[in-house]
From TrEMBL, chains A, C:
GO biological processes: phenylacetate catabolic process
Name of the featured protein: Ring-1,2-phenylacetyl-CoA epoxidase subunit PaaC
InterPro entries, A to Z: Aromatic_CoA_ox/epox, Ferritin-like, Ferritin-like_SF, PaaA_PaaC, PaaC
Gene3D superfamilies for this protein: 1.20.1260.10
Signal peptide boundaries: none
Any single Gene Ontology cellular-component annotation: cytosol
């Protein structure tokens, strides 16, 4: 596969996996406005995934289609960040009375969209014109995602004692997963080399500024990093992606010859 | 009495009543009941279709479905707003839903059992809802009639999308066709019941008609729905599960079989297959979200206090 | 399909679905002895399912195998009672702080095994000799399941205020689903007619006695029945079976030509 | 001093120490630490394999896997009992696990990512565990040595089952073979690290040897494991992911490459891929089960009171 196709799949997998997760709140949100807002975020992400998979299918040629790429690739072929496949619950037991924790959802959307405003901004200059066009469209969407999640991060951090504790726990849980953003992967380096991709490590200072600024406003403490750096973008995932994909792909795979 | 006369005159002239206008208490109560029931239906109605979002068989269908469920949330939101113009709070309306006092459309107490149900709900359930709702676009209460204009527009779009999804499936594999037929078999009679009991047994109709809140009778709407749907079913290539369904030249309408009203009332009275589950899902979402709403409120208060301190 | 095959599938589907549910506690039980006990129940049920599917495959002939029957049949083809596919949570929100409620698990295992001790006992006289043999083996197992769940029903009912409330809520939630036991299905009547099956409605008085006796000891109140009678055994399920099967069948279906 | 002499003599004679016997405090503490750590490993070890029960690709494999995970629970249960003979309570041991004070085998902090992992854990992880544990069947503390005899017997059975499952997969489709190779690639080095740091860096070894609690050195066990496993890998038809792995005629052993001890210590110190998740899963199960344990206790008390009343 070409470097460009691999890079497009990495971006598409990110979008589809987080889109799938965000949609899980549909009908179950804390207030109807949030059901709508998260459905909107999900819809944007699925839309981005479609454009990216379509472009990957063009690059790959043959019988590749957006749905073949989304529905008929197995777990280790997915190149999304591990952060995005985690369920909506905090690792810190004791706060999470329910299996869906809105604080976790908000923190993840914040950490990821803070990265993607920078990535999409830079990718507007991609040498792949289609990707540059997708980036321009996605940038507008992700700016809204960042505003939405940042506003809630502050509300929850600077809200009640309980909400502060919950969102801090979610932050402590999720922040280590962002280390994956800054590691090298052969897919990314190849795309950077051809001018198609952006060097994510070069965006780190800007991301830190965005994140630290919001955390300060939210009165949250950024945890020191120690430990394990995930490798989802290299195809090495957590135990959660398998369940997500088996549900997502179940119907499509039960009817491999069907058109929907 | 003078106010009453003015109100009656406005109604008779097919004019609109607005929030600031005087209105009889019974009119207000009837509207609150009807609008909130409709809002609740939109919110609960997100669940049966939402059940298939994670498994939608293509990204395009997934996007369409999310957008549709999102629209339902939007309808709920502005119907709650319309109800609020009558002096009730959303919190009170939700309490009434969660305690089981308020009703929502009984159709959502049936399960979605295969992917075709998503299409069928668009085609038949939304189709029946539109039949019920189009007359309400001319309803006498301004905010409600304006909300219904927007709702109906979007629902019509959903209906076409649902029908189109079924058409694609009917052109597909045998399994896909079987899914559609199975789905229509399960939903058809339930959709006919959505128009409510026969006119003879319908308690609220007369007063509702008088006030321009209800504009066409249950049986007339049901007939209209059947007459519109039978040709669509033919194009689709599925069989509607009613052996008595046939064109009556004399009446200029389709005749149809007996609706199982016992089943309808059982479900309305809380004992359908999913009543408890739908309600408890909503209650759980509300309870689980309490800390989030509390946080938003606490933060807003802190912001306000900080602003006041700065101003002082 | 022959009446016998259909009947065997009904019994097998019951066993595999409840076996799948009980195994969900493995590693997550309230005390290690219960992890072991429920794994044991699950193992017995999977074992019963295997024997029943194997016999069904023999009756059906052709290329039917136990795994084809368990893994490659779709939702509406499954003939299990709806009761058995429900997740382990009570419908009564407020008590269930977690998504897995042990009270629900215990009540379901109790209601079902109280039926199956009677069913297996009667099926020892089945005209299908294989089924009669399976019944004799299963009877021993289900007697243990009944004792286990009955003991816990009493502990929970006659335990703390909280446990009493929880298990009563689980009972209120699940009892209506047992009405399905007593309804007619063409599959059962056909099997009864040939002497292969047992008339479940004829067991009702004995079941009532078993249940009422245990409930009295557990100080629980049997809820009056009103409402909807489920039809899982006719292939009309709840929304939960689809998710259960899509997870259970995902790997097998991803590799339709594989042998494991 | 007299007791100590008697104890030493018993140890030197390769005799067994039993619960009622006098023993030095350090011996008791070391045993409690080691046995409870082993018990915790069995309980936590249920999780990575348990992760695949719901998706096992055949009913036979599902039954085998449930039985295996159940056995691990059983091992945990009687190892806790063995520890209790040393005067500690299971509740205290669990508290130590849940608070992070007690350790469990670090190998369970890695994820199971495909079905072959179930076989690989049987073959390699259980295989390495058996190497570690067989010498403990002759351990100086009676209850522990008896527990280990039973554990080792069952683990050997699991190892053969795991290997057999992989053999079947290696005779299957290309995807199945790829799964096995991928799985072995991920687990091989982690299994070698299971024998603990090189002898030079192993703090507890000397005293443990003296007491007959530990009987063979880390490096010797590791070498023994490698020598036993390489031929099995050949039969299986997979490649062990170590380019330095080759037979050394002179040593009469396989040479092997450098183990990444940094990664090992990172994981041991709490920062492996699944440490937080495994522990929080156990804590959640324990907390969620509190009401069940409370109920059992309350019921037992009531029963007792009723019995006493009747007796009075």
């Amino acid at each position: 596969m070409s470097a460009t196709a691999n890079y497009l799949l990495h971006l598409a997998d990110n979008a589809v996996v987080l889109g799938q997760r965000n949609a899980e709140w549909c009908g179950h949100g804390p207030v109807i406005e949030e059901d709508i807002a998260l459905a909107n975020v999900s819809l944007d992400l699925i839309g981005q995934a479609r454009l990216l998979y379509q472009q990957a299918a063009v690059v790959l040629g043959g019988d590749a289609t957006e749905d073949k790429l989304a529905y008929f690739r197995d777990e280790p072929e997915f190149r999304n960040y591990t952060l995005l496949e985690l369920p909506h619950r905090s690792a810190l037991v004791g706060y999470a009375k329910s299996d869906m924790d809105y604080g976790t959802t908000i923190v993840r959307n914040f950490l990821y969209s803070a990265l993607m405003v920078l990535v999409w901004e830079a990718l507007q200059q991609s040498k792949d014109e289609q990707l540059a066009a997708i980036a321009a469209k996605s940038l507008k969407e992700v700016r809204y995602h960042l505003r939405h999640s940042r506003d809630w991060l502050i509300r929850l951090g600077d809200g009640t004692d309980e909400s502060h504790a919950r969102v801090q726990a979610a932050l402590d849980h999720l922040m280590p997963y962002t280390e994956e953003f800054w590691t090298d992967s052969s897919i990314e380096s190849a795309a950077v080399a051809t001018g198609v991709g952006v060097s994510v490590p070069s965006l780190r200072a800007q991301w830190d500024a965005l994140v630290n600024d919001a955390l300060a406003e939210a009165t949250l403490v950024r945890p020191a990093f120690e430990g394990y750096i995930t490798e989802g973008k290299q195809g090495l995932h957590s135990e959660h992606l398998g369940f997500l994909l088996s549900e997502m792909q179940s119907l499509a795979r039960a009817h491999p010859n069907a058109t929907w | 009495p003078e106010l009453m006369a003015k109100f009656d005159a406005r109604i008779d002239a097919d004019g609109r009543i607005e929030p600031q206008d005087w209105m009889p208490d019974a009119y207000r109560k009837t509207l609150v009941r009807q609008i909130s029931q409709h809002a609740h239906s939109e919110i609960v109605g997100m669940l049966p279709e939402g059940n298939w979002i994670s498994r939608a068989p293509s990204l395009k269908r997934k996007a369409i479905l999310i957008a549709k469920v999102q629209d339902e949330g939007g309808h709920g939101q502005y119907l709650y707003s319309a109800a609020e113009t009558l002096g009730v709070s959303r919190a009170d309306l939700l309490d009434a839903l969660h305690s089981g006092k308020a009703k929502y459309s009984s159709i959502f107490n049936y399960p979605t059992l295969n992917w075709a149900d998503v299409g069928t709900i668009g085609w038949l359930v939304d189709g029946a809802a539109i039949m019920n709702q189009v007359p309400l676009c001319r309803c006498s209460y301004g905010p409600y009639s304006r909300a219904m204009i927007r709702v109906c527009k979007e629902e019509s779009f959903h209906q076409r999308q649902g029908y189109e999804a079924l058409l694609v499936m009917m052109r597909g594999t045998d399994e896909q066709k079987a899914m559609v037929q199975d789905s229509v078999n399960r939903w058809w009679w339930k959709c006919l019941a959505m128009f409510g009991p026969p006119d003879a047994d319908s308690p609220h109709s007369a007063q509702g008609m008088r006030w321009g809140i209800k504009r066409v009778s249950n049986d007339d709407l049901r007939q209209k729905f059947i007459d519109a749907t039978v040709p669509q079913a033919k194009v689709l290539g599925i069989t509607l599960p009613d052996p008595d369904l046939k064109w009556n030249e004399e009446r200029g309408h389709y005749d149809y079989g007996q609706i199982d009203w016992d089943e309808f009332w059982t479900t309305v009275n809380g004992n359908g297959p999913c009543n408890k589950e739908r309600l408890s899902t909503r209650v759980k979402a509300h309870n689980d979200g309490q800390w989030v709403r509390d946080a938003a409120l606490a933060h807003a208060r802190k912001q306000q206090q900080r602003a006041m301190k700065e101003a002082a």
